[in-house]
Please model this.
Amino acid sequence: MKPTTELTLRTGSATHRGAHRENNEDSMVVAGSLSVVADGMGGHEAGEVASRLCVRQLAYSSLFTRPGGLTEQEQAEFEIRYAAAGGGRKATNVLNDEIMRTLEKLRTLLGETNEKIKTALSRAGGTTVTGAWLTTIGDHNLWVIFNVGDSRTYRLMRPEDGIHHSNLEQLSGDRGTASLEQITSDHSEVQYLVDEGQITALEALTHPRRNVITRALGTGNYWEPDFWVLPARPGDRLMLCSDGLSGELSHEYMARVLTSVRHPQDAADVLQNEALRAGGRDNITVVVADAQQVED
Model:
């Protein structure tokens, strides 16, 4: 059982210590169909180690080497259940159950990563992490997005997606009319205040506690990830970044670059260079990931 259209990943990435930092505590990896950005914390060396441990633990996991993380036996059992459902709502329920099992495996892996960082650094350091995994379950191409902390994943939305939201920037470029959507939600004090209506999104940009995060891996505090599962199609473009990028560039500017610059490596380079020109006050890391048909 395979999707009608087989997808592969084409990516571009860039990382820089920034204009004012002595070292780069960010880490990133693209491994097969998995893209990850991690932003370490804890001062010199501790943050570097935490983010590096995080991306390595994920990159070397066998989970991401199998469609949906399913073993051969699990895949065979799923196909039997899916076929027996006979389509319709029952088949959808079977698919949703399998997706939930995949997410639980990913949560377990992130929990193991959390423990590995805690053990290595004795809670002296930690890291945020966001990731995007292009995978298949049954005959569905899917993006599995995960997030802990305030590193972010965005995607370009096209007119046919039929989604109109105040958090989207409408722009036209080489990809036609498109909108930039922030998929993940920051685990931070200012995002909580925005969600509660105590401050506006504009006020959050300059709030004195805008860098205080409420979830991270390896610190010994709350680390639970958030997940999003989205349909994947040819032409999809995602961007993952640390707050050193999103904190320097406006939503509108990032949208303009991602809409108009065709190759993902060129887009990543432009975004990094512009973040440096805007001040580069923190480490800057970005991954741009495009879903393409295999024959392309």
